[in-house]
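Input.
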Amino acid sequence: MTNTQLRGESPAGQDAAARRRKAALAHAFTLAADEYDEANGGFFNPIGARLARLAGLRPGDRVLDVGCGRGAVLFAALAEVGPEGYVVGVDLAPGMVQATAAQAAGRGLRNVCVRLDDAEALGFPDRSFEAALSSFAVIFTPDPAAALASVHRVLVPGGRFGFTAFGADEPGWERPGAALNAFLPAEAARLRQSRAARFNPLGRSPEEAAELLHRAGFTDVRTVEHLAATHYPTADAWWHAQRAGGWRGVLEAIPAERLDEARAAALAVLAPLTAADGSLVRRTAIRYTTALRE
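Output.
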């Protein structure tokens, strides 16, 4: 199996809004790819490892990582399945695919493949995997029912599916995001005005996620929460993490001439959360949902 295989075709029949949203996500995460792991790996990598453990991966399993990013789940899953198994990572962002494939190649890994693909129309034969995982990825798909149907199709009967979603933040951590959103052009601000606009039902609540999973043919749906703490030595380190992560798309949408002003506004509202030494700790509940394919 080659380490990198590029596949960039969109599913037939997608509406224009969905295509634009996916293109925007792919563009933002490609821009963030080179710095993503360095800036945000301390948050995402332990979550990926916990998801791989909760999914009950076994030596020799074939595993699909949907929305693999820089490999937080990919490499954790590889450690679980061992040399007799293999892991395929797919992502919409070419920059993420290229960087993660290069990382795998640099480690000399032979049982890993990273490629461009779309969660809503996965390019694999039926029953290709014993497990599919997705950390903070399927919660963004414009058509989550299509994504679940696609995942269900590529799993063997009894195969395991697991994904993560964001739970509640500590009070106060909504302020920097609100400060940045205030600098967005009107249409972009409208699209981001609520949590419901940013996440599909898989990311909004355990109840909505369970309903969608059951409709797609999954059983034994379970959700647990664990608290994740992110440490930033300085407020500037927090800002760097936003530019190298999921907020990159928002920052790209802010007019360039106002970006310094937006940065100052975001850092100002972080002041009450900042310790005497200038550091910050963000605590976020993370939801881990697992299910079985009928």
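Strands lie at 4-5, 62-66, 86-91, 112-116, 129-135, 155-169, 218-232, 280-293.
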